[in-house]
Amino acid sequence: MASKKTATMKDVAKEAGVALGTVSKMINGLPVSEEKRRKIEAAIKSLNYEVNTYAQGLRAQKSNLVALIIPNTNNPFFSSFTNQVEYALYKRGKKLLLCCAGGIAQKEIEYLNMAINNKVDGIIALTYSDIGNYISQDIPLVVFDRYFENRDLPRVASDNFAGACLAVEKLLEFGCRHPVYIRFYSFLPGEADKRKDGYLYACAKHHLEPDFIDVENSKNNIAVMKDFIEKHKNKDGTLSFDGVFAHTDYYGYIFQKLLRQEGFRVPEDVQIIGFDGINIFGNADDGLFISSICQPVDALAEKCVEILLSGNSSLTPSLTLLPVQYRGGGTTLE
Amino acid sequence: MASKKTATMKDVAKEAGVALGTVSKMINGLPVSEEKRRKIEAAIKSLNYEVNTYAQGLRAQKSNLVALIIPNTNNPFFSSFTNQVEYALYKRGKKLLLCCAGGIAQKEIEYLNMAINNKVDGIIALTYSDIGNYISQDIPLVVFDRYFENRDLPRVASDNFAGACLAVEKLLEFGCRHPVYIRFYSFLPGEADKRKDGYLYACAKHHLEPDFIDVENSKNNIAVMKDFIEKHKNKDGTLSFDGVFAHTDYYGYIFQKLLRQEGFRVPEDVQIIGFDGINIFGNADDGLFISSICQPVDALAEKCVEILLSGNSSLTPSLTLLPVQYRGGGTTLE
DNA sequence: TGTAATAAATGAAACGTTTCATTCAAAAAA
DNA sequence: TTTTTTGAATGAAACGTTTCATTTATTACA
């Protein structure tokens, strides 16, 4: 079999009887006479020419790659976000370099450097360590949710405060009297913290006594939840709370499982609203998880990409908040 | 601010007082005298040198990229597979180009070409169209599950036949008398088809009458399932089946929801075993979905990458089957 | 008709590596 | 000591683009 060496621009130029630079211009959409254009197009077709992205990258010092640094793609919110980012990039002819950093600082930094080495056009970061100091000034970067004290980077997030208020008000609307909050502590400042503020604000507004179940990443949260349930049992076996706003759908789901195990009914005894809008299998109603404040994953991804590639990311208001929505999913009465 | 032009190998050579080629050798792990090595290392550190992957790619006509073509990352099985592929590549210093083709033929082909253009080291394909004819002979490619008549490509899959047998036998072991199969038809030949064969084999072995609920991708499967339940109600309101083996966890989950809506108890009245081993949030027991035959996602991903990068993918037996496992998840009695 | 202005085409140079044919130095063999 | 052998060091060439200073052709104007 003859050698399959792919044709180069030089070959095309020779075949078409034009100069190398003319082919380049034509490829890049610069003005070329109709006559040459036809010849070059014919040559490209006959030689089955494909542009070499490495030569382009070397020359231009940039790729058409965008890196997404994310903890993993197991968590449904992350995987859904990843999916939408990929789509937003695809629409713009960009490609996605997926970096699962596991939320580990060292890996996040490693990927950050790798991305820069690979001359990616930009980075979207959904990270769990304070990488602010490691981010080159020269590379466009958009942060999801997180806030870095020392670096003023464009950020995109859901309107967490409004979402938390909405959750409480929906619970009240559905008849709850005592909504508690499954609170997640993070040592990293970010927009998700506003869920707590929103809950407190809504409680104050409606003259409710705030109450918390404090969960953490590396803690035995099941025990904490069980303990909470135990301590909130009335003498007649009923519970002293009837509503739960969970920091994420995940915690809401776990809590719901525990309640049912303990013989309580969801949503009849306790109504639960989570946060994220997880919809496994991405399939309308089928995959619905629990009632939730839904983050607009597609809009969030689109916005991240838009800001990243707009080129003037430093001119963009540094925080973009997108609206959330309530969606019932079987753990509430409506 | 001074220009931040990144240092090149030439700069390092000059700084270290050695030849360009020596730096290259040292970077690539070829023998270099201890003295020069020290000097070069110092220079690299002081100049903060990072190798330019585009120059490498141009020279070597290859990248360190591997493309994964997959329908999406929403489906938990896909997203988990993606995650593990990323990890397997990371361990080998390779990077993941994620291509979500939505199972659309035209997009799958488009991504295939893009990957080849980008001189990826290889492609892992989990596709939903007959792309066999579009695959260049020159690029390493490993197929997950699917079989292409016209191209003998290395394939990796779970042992679906054994898994289906195991499902039926577990149901019997847990006391079921009449396990039915939620069957999924695909017009593309692949290993997942063997689930049907396994079910039939197990039925024959245990003298059971096979029975099916036929689901499809773009059909109103809910209606089909409801209809099945209706038709299998005995006069006393009980059901004439007591076990379900679902082609995927997804269908098992949907069916379980319907059964509960109809007032039946899972697992007391009907036990359900799905296929895939979906574990949302990737968190041991917490995220457990339903009882399932678990595909060894990490081993599958690892194997795909291993074969892909072994270089002799054409020497590898064309089909690699990995063993599956049963895992209880609340929709069975054990 | 001659000159100026405009537009297109040209091809060498540069991007930062790796490779390879040479050169050089040191150690081993004669 | 002289010759061979060995192994490291060298730097030019090549990978396939894009860019840019020139050249060439065309049109507009006086």
Task: From the structure above, extract its key features.
about 325 residues, Rossmann fold, homodimer, DNA-binding, 6-stranded parallel β-sheet, alpha/beta
What would you say this structure looks like, in words?
Chain A folds into three domains: 9-51, no CATH class; 65-157 and 298-321, Response regulator (Rossmann fold, 3-Layer(aba) Sandwich), CATH 3.40.50; 160-297, Response regulator (Rossmann fold, 3-Layer(aba) Sandwich). Chain A contains eleven helices and twelve strands. Chain A is 39% helix and 16% strand. Chain A has 334 residues and is of the alpha/beta class. Chain A has helices at residues 9-16, 20-27, 34-47, 53-60, 76-91, 105-117, 160-173, 194-205, 221-231, 249-261, 297-310; strands at 65-70, 95-100, 122-125, 141-144, 155-158, 179-184, 212-215, 243-246, 271-276, 292-294, 319-322, 325-327. In chain A, strands 2-1-3-4-5-11 form a six-stranded parallel sheet, sandwiched between helices. A six-stranded mixed sheet of chain A has the order 7-6-8-9-10-12, sandwiched between helices. The first copy, chain A, is elongated, with a radius of gyration of 26 Å. In chain A, helix 5 (76-91) packs across helix 11 and helix 9 (221-231) crosses helix 10 (249-261). Strand 2 of chain A pairs antiparallel with strand 2 (95-100) of chain B, so a sheet runs across the interface. Chain A binds a DNA duplex (30 and 30 nucleotides) through residues 8-10, 18-22, 24-25, 27-28, 31-33, 36, 51-61.
